[in-house]
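Q&A log
Question type: sequence-to-structure
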Amino acid sequence: MELFNAQGERSVTTNHIAAHLEISPGNLYYYFRNKQAIIAELFDRYERNVDGFLQLPEGRALTIEDKTRYLESLLSAMWDYRFVHRDLEHLLSGDDQLAARYGLFAKRHLLSAQTIYQGFVDAGILRMTPAQVEALAVNAWIVMTSWVPFLCTLGGGEDRGMDRNMLRRGIFQLLALEEGFVTDEARPAVSGLLAKLHAPILPG
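Response status: OK
Response body:
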């Protein structure tokens, strides 16, 4: 994951991975038959990470503190697995099994996002119709999955120098999608969270 994040998945071979680990390629192949198997294992970790936090709390209504927790968890997932977001189209086009898994993952969490946004409606934090909840979930997914490639286009196709604050701005953009739906009672807290998350898109 360290090499994929730093250099891009396409630039890293199994020989590079073995050399980085100071083992022989044959030893690496004993555990992973090819690079696709390594990517599948990393995606499994990413999937379990997201599955773990994109769910409603049990036995209580959602709060602004939950919104902070969701956004910070998304930021950590985007940062820790940024190669997935940056190289997603290439990863899926070269691996039918991974593409099928990702399709199920995306559908599952589009529904999770709708459930969570509806939870904020039920808690009096957002005021939205069911159609608006669905549209917001789709737009949020598009921003989350496209933010790293967007930053790469601003950097001339490279992500060298990308830092966590630049990804934090993507989380700000997610929250900004909700501004028009925030209730009067929740607006001061949401405005404070927006101010906390705001960061430059590019350094300098």
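Response note: The chain has a mean pLDDT of 92.
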